[in-house]
Design a protein that fits this description.
- This protein has 114 residues and is α+β, with helices and mostly antiparallel strands.
- The protein has one domain.
- Helices cover 22% and strands 27% of the residues.
- Strands 1-2-3-4-5 form a 5-stranded antiparallel β-sheet, covered by helices on one side.
- Strand 2 and strand 3 form a beta hairpin.
- Helix 1 runs parallel beside helix 2.
- The chain is elongated.
- The termini are far apart.
Length: 114
Amino acid sequence: MARKVLRLADYRRKAARPVYFTKNELNRLLSVYSRRVIGGEWKDYAIDFGRGMVAFSIYGTVSGRPLFTVYKFAPGSHRQGDYVLASGGNTLQRGGTLDNVLATFDRKLSLVSR
């Protein structure tokens, strides 16, 4: 009776590669964050990891829900871009680069009507 050797690695699911912010991306995020902390707008942040994504959440108070969250998804997993800026469950901006998403914070807000 002939025995056949099976490689278990051939049958296991391919593990998703971890997603993380690069050093330059983290420096860019912390630069925007620190400017807003100095201005008294933001108070705290958190970095979370999930399956195929990493999130940088920004808080206005020490507890509660985040004001904004910047997500980075696995490369090529989203057609509209791998970076997303969200607030309260709503998507504010999508982009192919982190700078495209963070540009939202650089815009000057103006009064539209009274």
